[in-house]
Amino acid sequence: MSETRHNWTKQEILDIYNKPFMELLYEAATVHRKHHDPNVVQVSTLLSVKTGGCSEDCGYCPQAARYHTNIEGNDLMSVQQVKAQALRAKEGGSSRVCMGAAWRNVKDGEEFDQVLEMVRTINKLDMEVCCTLGMLTENQAKRLAEAGLYAYNHNLDSSEEYYKEVISTRGYQDRLDTIDNVRKTNVTVCSGGIIGMGETLEDRAGMLVALSTLNPQPESTPINALVAVEGTPLEDQKPISIWEMVRMVATTRIIMPETQVRLSAGRTQMTREGQAMCFFAGANSIFAGDKLLTTPNPDVNEDMEMFAVLGLEPQKPFTKKVQPQTVEAKDSQFESLGEKPKWTRPDHKIERNEAAKAKALK
Ligand code: SF4
């Protein structure tokens, strides 16, 4: 079994990405088979526990309050609502529930306490629990870990250079610092990005340098294809081709051999044959459910039909890592510190973000 490398360069990654297609596919499939069961795919359900009204300006995101996207915002769901949805996801074959809240960062207080209770509740259902709540401090990461969190998602989105063309309200280093805070606990890291936002191949490779040189590498890496939503600054971006998606998946698989590579947003634009190629190239995780936060996704039955056609099996929970213990709130070693960290706000001008904001105000 080859050692995982943490010193990949942009040029090496580009050389892999640009290999003749069949060679790339063969090499990726070979790495995949050495490190994973190629017939097992992890299934996660993404649940938007708090939707819309976000203060950030991520150019791809319909949940940013400043753009006009017809998204129906929702306050934080109740623990009971989340439990009911988690049970449905479990019945549908999901081993993991990922709860997303449209927040810039986690704030200590009642809402975070409620999220901690959601984590405890889902972990007790013997499902892996993941959260994506924005930036977070070390103490907040420890509190989530103590509640029984299995994974924390925080995407790098793109290369450091292109990130500045998409988001102005926080810096790349904030992302890395949050991942670092998660790494101070036993919670696994889920971090990836989006392709099709107008970035160059160098940017794709740059993002993969940033992810693969983390030590340890993320346990899970979502590769999203942009879903261009009307009203967002990226509404006019053309969808990427399946060949680009397969190349990105295969390259990620080769340089991050142990990571679960996740097909995320954009799966509705792919045929089954296209998805099968992605699985062959090393993708071994998908999001299930008819919505990915706010954008469309294939429904569970369609996915299970595809699994039957391809002879794939959903991965059992806690296959890769043991189930964390849940500590009840009353027995917690950590308290709410009421922290107000100064995450950066570069606030440089991104013309298309400004234009989308101005259009929404009309
Ligand atoms: S991606 Fe997250 S942080 Fe960015 S605008 Fe959307 S909800 Fe807010």
From TrEMBL:
Cofactor dependence: [2Fe-2S] cluster; [4Fe-4S] cluster
Molecular functions per Gene Ontology: 2 iron, 2 sulfur cluster binding; 4 iron, 4 sulfur cluster binding; biotin synthase activity; iron ion binding
Domain Radical SAM core: 39-267
Keywords assigned by UniProt, alphabetized: 2Fe-2S, 4Fe-4S, Biotin biosynthesis, Iron, Iron-sulfur, Metal-binding, S-adenosyl-L-methionine, Transferase
Top enzyme category: transferase
Binding site for [2Fe-2S] cluster: 98, 130, 190, 262
Protein name from the UniProt record: Biotin synthase
HAMAP family, sorted: BioB (MF_01694)
CDD domains associated with the record: Radical_SAM (cd01335)
Annotated binding of [4Fe-4S] cluster, by residue: 54, 58, 61
SUPFAM superfamilies, per database record: Radical SAM enzymes
Self-association and partners: Homodimer.
Known pathway: Cofactor biosynthesis; biotin biosynthesis; biotin from 7,8-diaminononanoate: step 2/2
Annotated organism of origin: Seonamhaeicola sediminis
Keyword hit for Glycosyltransferase: no
Cofactor info, note text: Binds 1 [2Fe-2S] cluster. The cluster is coordinated with 3 cysteines and 1 arginine. Binds 1 [4Fe-4S] cluster. The cluster is coordinated with 3 cysteines and an exchangeable S-adenosyl-L-methionine.
One GO BP annotation of this record: biotin biosynthetic process
Ranges of biased composition (kind: Basic and acidic residues): 328-362
Similarity comment: Belongs to the radical SAM superfamily. Biotin synthase family.
Assigned EC number: 2.8.1.6
Disordered as annotated region, ranges: 319-362
